[in-house]
Design brief:
The complex is a heterodimer. Helices cover 38% and strands 25% of the residues of chain A. By secondary structure, chain A is of the alpha/beta class. Chain A has a domain at 1-71 and 197-238: Rossmann fold. In chain A, the strands form 2 sheets. Chain A has a 6-stranded mixed sheet with strand order 6-7-8-3-9-10, with helices on both faces. In chain A, strands 2-1-4-5 form a 4-stranded antiparallel sheet, covered by helices on one side. In chain A, a hairpin with a 2-residue loop joins β4 (55-60) and β5 (63-64). Chain B is mostly helical. Chain B has a domain at 26-227. Chain B is 77% helix and 1% strand. Chain B has 14 helices and 2 strands, in the order αααααβααααβααααα. A two-stranded antiparallel ribbon of chain B has the order 1-2. Classes of the chains: A alpha/beta, B mainly alpha. Chain A binds chain B through residues 48-50, 69-71, 74-75, 80, 82, 86, 88-91, 95, 98-100, 102-106, 110, 149-150, 153, and chain B through 169, 172-173, 175-176, 179-180, 182-191.
Chain lengths: 238, 303
Amino acid sequence: MLKLNRLTKRFGGLVAVNEVSFEVRQGEIFAVIGPNGAGKSTLLNLISGLFAPDLGTLELLGKDLTQSPPEVRAWHGLGRAFQIVQPFAEMSVRENLLVGALFGKPGTPMSKAKAVVEEVLELTGLAPKADTPAHELTLLEDKRLELARALCTQPRLLLLDEVMAGLRPAEAMEAVELIKKIRASGVTVLFIEHLMPVVRALADRVVVMDYGQVIAEGTYAEVAANPRVREAYLGRSA
Amino acid sequence: MILAGVLLLFALILPALPLGSWQPFALDTAQFAFLLSGLALSWDLLARTGQLSLAHGAFFGLGAYTAALAAPALGTLPALLAGGVVAAAGSFLLGLATLRLHGMYFAIATLAFSEVMRTFVLKAGFTGGSIGMIVAPPFDGRFPLGGYYLAVTVLGLCVLTSYLVSRSRLSYAMAAIRQGEAVARVLGVPVVRVKLVAFLLSSALAGLAGGVYGMKTLFLSPYDAFSLGRAVEALVIPIFGGLYTTTGPLVGGLLLVGLETWLRLRIGEGYLVVYGVLLILAILFLPRGLVGWFSRRRGGRHA
């Protein structure tokens, strides 16, 4: 589905992402975890095309998209919800979703896009807020909008950047159920998360990053037992 | 849109109204108001993508000079079209250079573009340089109302384009780019293409308006045709009338030109001071322009 090969990004002297390689398989929920500053968000920006890599390649569904701008990646089935919610503030919730539905796949007719929007409004529980201006939403609703808008592009692979941050435990569990539903509908999910219970509940496989590098890969139980991972999170013993 | 239709109809029959000795003055003022409203509508089209242009005075001037230079050889209508095309070509070059610029940086780049264009026309031989050039009236002066109706036609085109764009999927792309370009791209909005389309449409309309303007004033100089003042008017009108709408720049342009003319007649010397104060008041107390003020009042009554 998604294949990263030695993906690297430098900012001046800092190597934010250092030769990261892994493969996300069709239909799985894949987590990227790691301490603050490990390079997870930079990695997501490389995958969605907002940053150009200094080295390495990226393949989505068998196509090399290393040099493609974000919109082309979107057309090839890549969707993304941002960590810092960025709704189009002057638009209503419905109009926000319509942007994703209209342009996520080139040439989508208006009638089809509107149908997709109504479906996603129902799925994400935003239907009662459909005509609310986006700048009047609560944080929880903003997060849902962020996710819903990405879904409207009808992605094959959905990138989620800490969508649970700032949610209360009950709300986070609600979101977990929603992500399971999304996967059940045939969408592969790659997510970054700090909340370990969420990772344990969702992830089929986990990659752990530290200082820009992948230090472990496997199931949640496997990486949780890995001494290098414990070291990265808890600090190195003297 | 109904309002826009009524205004355009009124513009069509204005020459037939019994205005007596006021008629020539009224038609002349109206023609200028139409062209300036058209320019404002064209500026607003580009502004919808979040790009604040100070180059619309230059597009206007490019259209004016091109049409004036081409008219003797091509005839009035093809010359006006050529003006639109040359303005669009200029905007294409500017657009390629400024696509990655935002906000203030974009505005400064467009300002630099206007200065370059003005200097070019000032120094080039075939434009008459700083002396300026005489422009032939439209259709060799055979139709006294020809220029007036050309202005009505150009305004109609601007209104129609603005309206059609706001009804189309393009409007969602433009608004998305304006409110968050990176997010828009990640959602699949073809940002570069949308910005270029906005550039081309906007500058071509500005160029058309400029062409008719030159044939109205019968004389062009770089200081007038490429004045920064015109670029500022192109953005003040939509802000006063209501940004990102069709009605806003249309009504704003007609009202502001009307107001300016009325003040000049009533006060004479120093009328611009009063005009400026009124503009500042309007921008302070009508943050969303006339259109925003009206729609809020109407909304309030319903609630």
